[in-house]
UniProtKB/TrEMBL annotation:
InterPro entries reported in the protein's UniProt record: AAA+_ATPase (IPR003593), ABC_transporter-like_ATP-bd (IPR003439), ABC_transporter-like_CS (IPR017871), P-loop_NTPase (IPR027417), Siderophore_ABC-ATPase (IPR051535)
Pfam family, one: ABC_tran
The entry's keywords: ATP-binding, Cell membrane, Ion transport, Iron, Iron transport, Membrane, Nucleotide-binding, Transport
Domain ABC transporter: from-to ranges: 2-236
GO MF annotation terms: ATP binding; ATP hydrolysis activity
Organism: Aureimonas pseudogalii
Topology in the lipid bilayer: Peripheral membrane protein
Full protein name: Iron complex transport system ATP-binding protein
Entry GO CC: plasma membrane
Protein localization: Cell membrane
Keyword Cell membrane among record annotations: yes
Keyword Membrane recorded: yes
GO biological process, one term: iron ion transport
Length: 252
C-alpha cells in the first residue's frame, strides 16, 4: 500500500504539489491524469524518492520513503520516469538487466535470468535483445525501459506517460501488460496517462490532478463525465457510451 500524506513540493516560490493526500491500496491499476504542469511527475518523483517533499510524507508498506534505504525501497517500488536519460551504447538486454540491480547488486545470477527473460518477452523485445538503444525507434526504446522496470519485480510500479511514442497497437499492448501485472501478479500499478479513454478502458481508478492538487478521484464512470472533465481540463467534452463504457469525444 502507498499512503501519500499531505505532500507538498515547491520549486522556489512555486508550489507545484500542494498538500496531496492519497491512498493507493495494494493491487489494481490507477491512472493519474491532468493537464501539463499539474504536478503529476513531481508527485511520482516524491513517491519514489527521486525527490524530497517539502512537507508531508509517503509511506510504502508502512515505510517512510524519505527514511528508507534506497536498496530496500527499490525492491518494493519501481518507477519509469517521463524523461529517460539515454545511456548511449547500451543494449536492450543490458538495460533490462539493470532492473535487477536492487536484487543482484551488479552480480547477475541464474535467479535474475528468469525475470529478465520474462520482461523481454512481455514487451515483445526478443528480436531486439542485442540492439543498442540508439538503434531503436522511440517506441521500441520506450518498451525497453518498461521491460527494465518490470524486471525489477517490485510490488508497486509507477509509470510516467508510458504510452509516449507508442503506436496504437503497442499502446493497447502496454495497457494490457499493466492489467496483467495487476490481475495475474497482484502488482499495484500507478500510471500517468494523457488519453482519458485509455484510462477509462484499462484502469480501475482515475485520480485527476490540477494545479498541484487532486481535484477528482473515482471510477472511470465517475470521472469520465462532461462535468468532471470540464473541472479537470477546462474543456467541453462529450461523453458517449460504447459497450457499457464511457468514451470521451474531444475533437469537436
Ligand atoms: N526542476 C524544476 N524546477 C522548476 N520547476 C519545475 C521543475 N520541474 C517541474 N517544474 C514545474 O513544476 C510544475 C509541475 O511539473 P510536473 O510535475 O512535471 O507536471 P506534470 O507532470 O503534471 O506535467 C510545472 O509548472 C513545471 O514547470
Ligand atoms: Mg509529467
Amino acid at each position: 500500500m502507498i499512503d501519500i500524506q499531505a505532500v507538498t513540493k515547491r520549486y522556489g516560490p512555486q508550489t507545484v504539489v500542494n498538500g496531496v493526500t492519497l491512498t493507493l491500496p495494494t493491487g489494481g491499476v490507477t491512472a493519474i491524469v491532468g493537464p501539463n504542469g499539474a504536478g503529476k511527475s513531481t508527485l511520482l518523483s516524491v513517491m519514489s524518492r527521486l525527490m524530497k517533499a517539502d512537507a508531508g510524507r509517503v509511506l510504502v508498506d508502512g515505510m517512510d520513503v524519505a527514511a528508507t534505504p534506497g536498496d530496500v525501497l527499490a525492491r518494493r517500488i519501481s518507477v519509469l520516469r517521463q524523461d529517460n536519460a539515454l545511456a548511449a551504447r547500451l543494449t536492450v538486454a543490458d538495460l533490462v538487466a539493470f532492473g535487477r540491480y536492487p536484487h543482484s547488486k551488479g552480480r547477475l545470477t541464474a535467479a535474475d535470468r528468469e525475470p529478465i527473460e520474462r520482461a523481454v518477452g512481455f514487451l515483445g523485445l526478443e528480436a531486439y535483445r542485442d540492439r543498442f538503444l540508439d538503434e531503436l525507434s522511440g517506441g521500441q526504446r520506450q518498451r525497453a525501459f518498461v521491460a527494465m522496470v518490470l524486471a525489477q519485480d517490485t510490488d508497486a510500479i509507477l509509470l510516467d506517460e508510458p504510452l509516449n511514442n507508442l503506436d496504437m497497437r503497442h499502446a493497447v499492448a502496454m495497457m494490457q501488460i499493466m492489467r496483467r501485472a495487476a490481475d495475474d501478479l497482484g502488482k499495484t500499478v500507478v500510471v500517468v496517462l494523457h488519453d482519458i479513454n485509455f484510462a477509462a478502458s484499462y484502469c480501475d481508478r482515475i485520480v485527476a490532478m490540477r494545479e498541484g492538487a487532486v481535484v477528482r478521484d473515482g471510477t472511470p464512470d465517475e470521472i469520465v463525465t462532461p462535468e468532471a472533465l470540464r473541472a479537470i481540463y477546462d474543456m467541453e467534452m462529450q461523453v458517449v457510451r460504447i459497450d457499457e463504457r464511457p468514451v470521451c469525444v474531444f475533437w469537436r
